[in-house]
Amino acid sequence: MSIEKTTDPAAALHFLEEIVESDLAAGRYKSILTRFPPEPNGYLHIGHATSICLNFGLALKYGGATNLRFDDTNPVTEETEYVDSIISDVCWLGFEPARILYASDYFQQLYDWAKVLIMNGKAYVDFSSAEEIAALKGTPTEAGKDSPYRNTSPEENLALFEKMKAGEFPDGHCVLRAKIDMASPNMIMRDPLLYRIKHAHHHRTGDAWCIYPMYDWAHGQSDSIEHITHSICTLEFAPHRELYDWCIAQLGIFPSKQYEFARRNVSFAVTSKRKLKQLVEDGHVRGWDDPRMPTISGYRRRGYTPASIREFCDRIGVGKREMVADMALLEFCIREDLNKSSLRRFAVLDPLKVVITNYPEGETEWLETENNPEDPGTGKRQLAFGREIFIEQDDFMENPPPKYFRLSPGGLVRLKSAYIIKCEEVIKDAAGKITELHCSYVPESRSGQDTSGLKPQGVIHWLSASNARKAEVRLYDRLFQVEDPASEEDFKSTLNPKSLQIIDHALIEPDLADAKSGEQFQFTRLGYFCVDPDGTAEKPVFNRTVTLKDTWAKEMKK
Ligand code: ATP
Ligand code: MG
User: Fold this and answer.
1) What CATH number is given to the structural domain containing 367?
2) Phi and psi at residue 297, in whole multiples of 5°?
3) Average pLDDT over residues 155-161
4) How would residue 478 be classed by pLDDT, with cut points 50, 70 and 90?
5) What is the pTM for the complete model shown?
6) Residues 136 and 154 in one domain
7) Residues with a CB atom less than 6 Å from ligand 1
8) Please, where are the H alpha helices in 31-106?
């Protein structure tokens, strides 16, 4: 019996697509406008990528547009460097913001609207301390109590608010609060804070302001100013929706609507800018774009493609329940992509010299091999072959276990796209360390023209000593040793001390030395690699993006 596949396209819609489709069908909007609203207090991470794909994806699917809006209302933690990195990350992912905007551009409007609230008796200046405010807030089951400042007249509040803005009070001296309902079952509605005093320099508005709007006052109004139709945020903002609607209703402005979806996190990673910043500042990684970081810039430097990250976001989908995606899925997506697109090359990470004793000295022949069997259009290339070659140390064992198919004393192995060789002699130094192998080759076993009748089981990669070039290769492992580092008391205590392995004596095919930063290759049998910007012409540097197979998952299952 076969399971029938559903052909109903509507069945594949996620809940936000359903909402958008019904809004469009009901004629509520002519077209939709979404926004991605990062706070520029760090570099974007893989969790943000899911939000970017969701917001831009909806607009693309339904013919709308998406604004990139910086939620830059906290001058203390925000920097221009982060703004620049966020713009470049969003564009690199393949999305084009309709407009790039800043909540700070709305500071005057937000201030004017706050005065409207005050004059309507819907906001007041409160001189209580943070502790006093908290103490009067009540509990989920118990109503809060009124602040002694709750019934100040609108005129007096207006004068006080203007003083706040004029810089007449120090930080924390007072706040502006909405006057809503201290008995509301929704704690967020118990006279939420709208403005706080912060005498701090802002990366865009400089010293023009010393009062800054809270998220709840800035976000919905910014959405409304831009006529955002669907304002999508993560679940923890669900209780804020009532306040979001209240503010818009008080002002009678464009009714943007807030919808919530569940955060997406990735195993073996932390997705919090604050935590990632600690890793950078404490020197646990080389920077925000360290290839081990779950930041978009880290993945880019590691060799992930925009398509692989979009595919990952697509596969984990959109939902209402928090989920931790398996990092193996992300690795699967990049393998799928690079398998199709990347050129194959040989590299030897840990070289062992092999002298082919029956091959004429000083002679070089050229052997043909495919650039990418998945894409015959990429053609073939020529490999130099001669008397001295290098193979991986790992591909030789002096005392092999049964079923070892690579090279061992007296054994045969095929050199990929070349000849079959036999190990005749193992040469060691005084300390007993293997320094080279002496092998013979079978002249009639040339790949494609093999008449030898020999069938060695193993095939290994190799490089000619005559033209191999040196390179540094960086191998990466999980940055954390546990699946959910954020749940640990000190997430940094779970860092993997072996997350970076630098190999400074690797060998590569000669044309790889001219590859440009970011170019990607499959090193046969070793994985996918990309050129790191750290490299020079003399010493190119390659990052391993991902291994060819999911060896980690297999090891974990053992
Ligand atoms: P962080 O703790 O990393 O700073 P944040 O939510 O405070 O996260 P913002 O810059 O405010 O970061 O986020 C911009 C947008 O990205 C928001 O709409 C937010 O909800 C969304 N976002 C952030 N992290 C995730 C995540 N892990 N999964 C899905 N969306 C996320
Ligand atoms: Mg935040």
Assistant:
1) 2.40.240.10
2) -70, -30
3) 98
4) very high
5) 0.93
6) yes
7) 37-39, 47-48, 50-51, 71, 233-234, 263-265, 271-273
8) 46-61, 80-92
